[in-house]
Protein: Glycerol-3-phosphate dehydrogenase subunit GlpB
Amino acid sequence: MAIEEDVIVIGGGLAGSIAALEAADSEASVRLITYKKSTLRHASGLIDVLGYLDEEEPVADPFSAVSKLPDDHPYSIAGEAAIRDGLDRFDEAVGDTYQGNHTDSNALVPTFGGAVKPTARYPAAAAAGLASDSREMLVVGFEEITDYNASMLADHLAAADVPFAVDGVELNFPGTYANDSRVTRFAKRLDNDEDVEYDGQTMGAREALADAVKPHVGDAERVGFPAFLGDEHTAEVRSDLERHLGVDVFEIPMGPPSFPGMRLADQMKDALDEAGVHISAGNPVIDYETDGDEIDAVIVDSKGREVPHYAEEFVLATGGLVGKGIDSDRDGTVEEPIFDCHIPHSEDRYDWFEQEAFGDQPFAHFGVRIDEGMRPLDADGNPEFPNLRAAGAVVGGTDTVTEKSQSGVSLTTGVVAGQRASERAAKREVSQ
Structure:
C-alpha cells in the first residue's frame, strides 16, 4: 500500500531529525525513513558549531568567525540566523539535559584522549568538567577499559596549560564481570544500582564505586569519570556519586560505544514521537519516481517489496562517506546513490588525497552542493529537483571534522531544509 505525506525525510541522524522536527512544527505530515541505526550512537554527544578556522587556536565565538568562511561554506549559504535557529530547535528537543545556550562562546570540554574540545552545547553530565573552571580535578579510569587511561588524560590536560591542577588514577571497577561488553555492563550496573561485593561487604554499585574513589580525591573539588555513568538514570547516578564523594562529578566523552551519543539518539527519537513524526525504520530507499521535473515518490525496499512513499517535498539526510550517504570506488567515481545528485570531484583518485596526513584532504569536502533553499545543485549550478533538499554530512564544501563544525552544519542545514520543505508543501496544497 502506498504511503503519502507532506514531507519525507530520508536519514535518521541529527540532520534528519532536526529537519523532521522543523517540518512537523508547521503541522505538516512528516515521515522519517531510516535504514540503519543513527551514527549519533558512535558520536561524542557534543554539539560543535565551529571550533577551528585555519589557526591552531580554538575559536572563542563561532558566530563572530562565520564571516571569515568562504562563500560556498554551508554556513555562508544558510546564514547566521539559520545557525541560531538550528541550535534553538536542538535546545527545544533536549531541554535541560544539555547546557551552553546561555552564551555565544564555545565551552572547552576535556575528552578521553586528553584534548580540550571547543563546543557550543554539551551534556549537563559534562558541565562540571569544563577546562575554563579553575577548580582542581581528579580523573578516574579503570583497568578494565584499555582505550581510556586516566593518568595519560591528566598528563595531556596539564600539558595543554589548563588553569587547574589535575591528577589521574586507575582503579578496578567494583564487582566481577565477564570479558565482554564491560562498558555497557558498568552502565547497567550503575543504572540499576545493583549489589556488588566490595571490600568484604555487599553494597550498591554506586556506593561501592564512590568508596573506591574516595581515598584518591585529596584536594580535588571535582571528579571525572568515563562517560558511562548510567544510561536511563544518568542524573541520578551522578547525584548519588556526588553525595557519597562530597564533590562535583562529571563525565568525560569517550569513543564508541558512546553513552552520550546513545542518550542523544534516544532523545531525538522521543522528540520525533512527541512531534507526531511517523518513523519507518529498517528498510532502505532504493529508487525514486518523478512527475515531470519533480520527485513524486521514493521507493522503499520493504522485505523484498518495493513500496512507493509519496510526498510533496523530500529531504536527503543520509550522511557522508562514513554514513554511506556518499559512495566512492576505485574507478574514481563518487556518487550520491539514491537520487544520483552531482558531487564535484576529480576522476583521478590520487587527487582525493594530500601528501600531508593532516593536510586539507579533498575527500573531506565531498558532498552535494546546495543553494539557499538547501536544494542539491547539478553540474551547471541548477537545482537537481525543485522539491529535494539536503542536510547534514551529505552536504559538501568544507571539512567539518577539521573545523569541528559537523553537528552545527547538521543543525543548520536540517532546520532550513525542514522549514523550506514544509513551506513549499503548504503552498502546493493551497494551490491544488
